[in-house]
Amino acid sequence: MTQHSPSPALSVAMSVYNGERFLAPAIQSVLDQTLGDFEFLILDDGSTDSSRAIIEEFAKRDARIKPILRENRGLVASLNQLLGTATAPIVARMDADDICHPERFAKQIAFLAAHPDHGVVGSWSEDIDEHDRPWPTAGVDHALTNEEMQAVAARGGQLLVHPAVMYRKDIVLGVGGYHAAFRHCEDYDLWLRLASETKMANLPERLLRYRHYAEQVSKKYVTEQTVGAAIAHEAWRAREAGKPDPTAELETLPPVDQLDALFGEAGVASRVRARVARGILHSPTALRDEGFEILLQHIGDGGDREGLWRTALRLLRFGEPARALRLSAALAAA
Questions:
Q1: What are the backbone angles phi and psi of residue 78, rounded to the nearest 5°?
Q2: pTM, rounded to two decimals
Q3: CA 207 → CA 49, 124, 189, 202, 265, distances in Å?
Q4: DSSP class of residue 141?
Q5: How far apart are CA 319 and CA 313, in angstroms?
Q6: Structural domain of 290
Q7: In this predicted model, what pLDDT tens digit does every residue of 16-40 receive, in sequence order?
Q8: I want to staple 20 with a disulfide (CB 3.0 to 4.6 A). Which of 50, 99, 180, 305 is the partner?
């Protein structure tokens, strides 16, 4: 059995909920790291599949694994519990469906050692599907330097791949950890809050194989995730303007229509709807749920309609002729 260091250099934080399908290779990729001085915290968030048994079996073979087994409380509560449990000054995030490059930890911890002014370091990722095959993506790689990331933050772009991140625990705890209100985009909200407190960077290497499949959270909750990210960016704008963050103490986010009142500023709800409209145009899930109503409100606001006629055609392909007709009528009226 691999022994556990009493004072590890690194704490690895993984939350699992019904992750049996990809869990074993995810765990093994952590255990196979060239940097071995870590504790591996694996929190089972009330799984009803065989995830708990898989974790316990790995823990028998490697003493670095510290299982945390409890009832379901959700991802944000799990991430904050992992932060509070970690004994090392540096924490590496990892998800239960991705795969680490063997040198990921060594390269990231070396970067933080060489850059004490940086509190967060991520990396580029390699996108794969459920069968480990390449996943085609039209997205661009994340920014590398702190200066580039600040510019990306200003325009509301993505900053880091959450399961590829390593950060200094005290800095993350110092900004309050993950905020419960931003369910399904809790990482993006955290990066924006950290952007004002520390420097961040990405390594230009694909140190994580990021998995895409139909059942993952980012596919199932597109509208909630996109709305939350838009509100997180509005909170960033408020902080940058020297105003208090009205989301800081929230447990849940209010409906979009109430955002002007929450922020004390006209136009916030309209900006959020515009961002959501741009973000859901290719998502069958979002165009079938409340995201569609937000899209119609965006048109009613007089918002940008570029590409929306194509979205009406897309709705027909999705088997939603009634929604295609409603969208076409709204565009024609506008």
A1: -65, -45
A2: 0.93
A3: 29, 7, 23, 10, 42
A4: P
A5: 10
A6: 240-333
A7: 999 999 999 999 999 999 999 999 9
A8: 50
